[in-house]
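A.,

Following up on our hallway conversation. Structure tokens first:
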């Protein structure tokens, strides 16, 4: 109210409150689309992370079993007295004769000069796995599976040439080639997703007589 001379009052209109504005339908649709896109990105990132973790676990597990086998063979070769390359299984062993390439699927290690005491590593062709037995325990111990190469052991000289005799300072080359599923939940068969691994080492005895 505004006072005027002569006791007259002038009534002025009260200022109206600012109008309240709501979201329009297009704005709501844009916001929903943005949130949907963000949700898809988060889910996709999570699935990709889980997939990469599964791949890493598979690769680490595959190489870990192979490295464990290599390390075990390495230790026993270094401590061995007599090393023979041959063809064998859990029951028999036939060493490669002289004047023939010293390449085979089995390695027999004698820790001492007693030929009744031995350790044998061999490729089991029934399930394509590397196994170990000893003269004290004839129960095969599984070391690595899914092996694809037939000849695992060979005797070489220091230059890497394959020997044809029982040379005293021979070097034993051990090679493991195998396939493992890239995704453990993938389809098994020709269309399955496999990964190829190749582990190799060269070992000689610590003491050369």
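Then the amino acids I'd put at each of the 209 positions:
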């Amino acid at each position: 109210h505004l006072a005027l001379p002569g006791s007259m009052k002038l009534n002025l209109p009260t200022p109206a409150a600012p109008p309240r504005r709501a979201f329009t339908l297009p704005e709501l649709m844009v916001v929903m689309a943005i949130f949907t896109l963000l949700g898809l990105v988060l889910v996709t990132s999570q699935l990709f992370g889980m997939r990469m973790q599964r791949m890493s676990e598979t690769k680490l597990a595959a190489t870990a079993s192979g490295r464990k086998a290599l390390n075990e063979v390495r230790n026993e070769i270094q401590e061995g007295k007599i090393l023979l390359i041959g063809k064998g299984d859990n029951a028999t062993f036939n060493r490669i004769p002289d004047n023939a390439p010293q390449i085979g699927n089995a390695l027999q290690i004698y820790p001492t000069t007693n030929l009744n005491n031995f350790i044998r590593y061999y490729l089991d062709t029934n399930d394509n796995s590397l196994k170990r037995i000893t003269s004290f325990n004839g129960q095969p111990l599984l070391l690595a599976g899914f092996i694809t190469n037939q000849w695992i052991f060979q005797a070489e000289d220091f230059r890497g040439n394959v020997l044809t005799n029982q040379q005293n300072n021979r070097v034993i080359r051990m090679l493991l080639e195998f396939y493992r599923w890239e995704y453990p939940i993938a389809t098994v068969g020709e269309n399955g997703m496999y990964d190829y691994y190749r582990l190799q080492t060269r070992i000689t005895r610590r003491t050369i007589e």
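The helical segments are 25-79. Curious whether your intuition agrees with the design.

B.
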